[in-house]
Amino acid sequence: MERILKRSLLFLVLLSLYMSGCAKDIVTGKTTLNYYKLENEPKLGQQVLLQQEKALKNKKKEVNSEKNKAELEKLRRVVANIAAVSHYPDFPYEVYLADVDVVNAWCAPGGKMMVYEGLWDPKKGLVEKGNVDQYAAVMAHEMAHANARHVTESISRNMTIMMVGAAVQTAVAAGGYQEGSDLFGQIFSQGMDIFVPSYSRKNEFEADELGFFYMAKAGYDPRVAVELWKKAAKKKKDMASIFASHPTSGERARHLHKMLPKAMEFYEAAKKEGKPN
């Protein structure tokens, strides 16, 4: 009898938490499970950023160095313009640029972003240094992940699975950060731990589409995004690349190309308004 009561109580706890975490996402329009309050997401993002800064500092790698000042300013301007047309323009978006030869960029929950200068490396990079439309294609995609709340949704799903264990109450009380830490996998590159967010293919396609329209509404040429992924399709996959764990780059280019007419409408309207500012 005692065992049955315990199981019943656990079931009620799980059901209550599940129901309290289900809501319609205003960005994707789908019903999602998310135990995080929107206003708490920047705190999680700040923790992720601090961990990365600490790892880079331990390896004597600079963040926001003087040599990359010009590119950092361009990235900040691009992000500010995209943020203004995003679903959550009030997120505390911040861009950090690390002197690391890795082809990657990411946006943590709440809008904290890290870009590695390898993104525009002449040999293995994905974008051309100084090309703001290409910067917009990459950053809009990463910002879309934050707006769609993909990380905290994944954490919530993991927490639900963990709730069958004895640590459920502790996990919920702690906000699930520890349980979600594995969502930001790490790769070995030049002896450093570099964060690489892990998303499902569905998440990636959602971010592709959402970011595609964000950049167009902000006045950046969406055709550039299509060409960018065509370019990526020609490159070899490697664990240090922004497209390593994503859907195939050719697949992404085809997906975006289908939506190009609609994106161009947003782009042309934005140009009439004088965007980007």
Characterize the structure shown.
- By secondary structure, the chain is mostly helical.
- The protein has one domain.
- Helix content is about 50%, strand content about 10%.
- It contains eleven helices and seven strands.
- The strands form three sheets. The chain has a three-stranded mixed sheet with strand order 3-5-4, sandwiched between helices. A two-stranded antiparallel ribbon has the order 1-2.
- A hairpin with a 2-residue loop joins strand 6 (about 185-190) and strand 7 (about 190-195).
- Helix 3 packs across helix 4, helix 8 runs parallel beside helix 11 (about 260-270) and helix 9 packs antiparallel against helix 10 (about 250-260).
- It is globular, with a radius of gyration of 20 Å.
Keywords:
single chain, 277 residues, mainly alpha, 11 helices, disordered N terminus
Task: Reconstruct the topology from this structure.
Blueprint: H1 2-21, E1 22-24, E2 31-33, H2 41-58, H3 69-85, E3 94-98, E4 105-107, E5 112-116, H4 132-147, H5 150-162, H6 168-173, H7 177-180, E6 184-189, E7 192-197, H8 201-217, H9 223-233, H10 249-258, H11 260-272
Parallel strand pairs: 3-5
Antiparallel strand pairs: 1-2, 4-5, 6-7
Helix pairs in contact: 3-4, 4-8, 8-11, 9-10
Rounded Rg: 20 Å
Beta fraction of the residues? 5-15%
SSE pattern? HEEHHEEEHHHHEEHHHH
Number of helices: 11
Main-sheet strand order equals 3-5-4
DSSP summary, beta strand count: 7
Runs with pLDDT <50, length 5+? 2-21, 160-183, 238-245
Structural class: mainly alpha
Biggest sheet architecture: 3 strands, mixed
What is the helical fraction, as a range of percent?
40-55%
User: What is the average per-residue confidence, as pLDDT, rounded to a whole number?
Assistant: 79
Amino- and carboxy-terminal Cα gap:
68 Å
Our count of domains comes out at 1
What is the global morphology? Answer: globular
